[in-house]
């Protein structure tokens, strides 16, 4: 069992995760936004028997949009799988790979210090950084490294929000 919204939301890559539960899913806020819910729910998508349970007293717009987006993506993936004769299977990782993922999560501290440096940048420096990250994001997408592209996209969105 693994507990920790931030670890799941930030993309900790543990394909053995087959059940994700989101407590108080109807409490609107940063960790319950549409994007955060999609990211958290996506952790279960790496397992062929993955399941997500959201505990809530009411259905919020964020929950509804996240569920709709999940169904939309599932339809696209199933059509692609059928077209190409792919049978989904969970990836199996060695314990060493899981340890590497844990080390990556510990690198969060380094991320925080980089974030402080970004706040000290001038508007022009920030714009150049956004351009650089957008180029890297597009390159990652061309190379089919969608996880990296998504991380870069999120970084660009955060930088643009701070304008």
UniProtKB/TrEMBL annotation:
One of its GO terms (molecular function) is ATP binding. InterPro entries: Helicase_C-like, P-loop_NTPase, UVR_dom, UVR_dom_sf, UvrB, UvrB_YAD/RRR_dom. GO terms for biological process: nucleotide-excision repair. One of its GO terms (cellular component) is excinuclease repair complex. Residues 119-150 form a coiled coil. Residues 127-162 form the UVR domain. Pfam families: Helicase_C (PF00271), UVR (PF02151), UvrB (PF12344). PROSITE patterns: HELICASE_CTER (PS51194), UVR (PS50151). Signal peptide: none annotated. Forms a heterotetramer with UvrA during the search for lesions. Interacts with UvrC in an incision complex. Belongs to the UvrB family. PANTHER family: UVRABC SYSTEM PROTEIN B (PTHR24029:SF0). This is UvrABC system protein B. It comes from Gracilibacillus boraciitolerans JCM 21714.
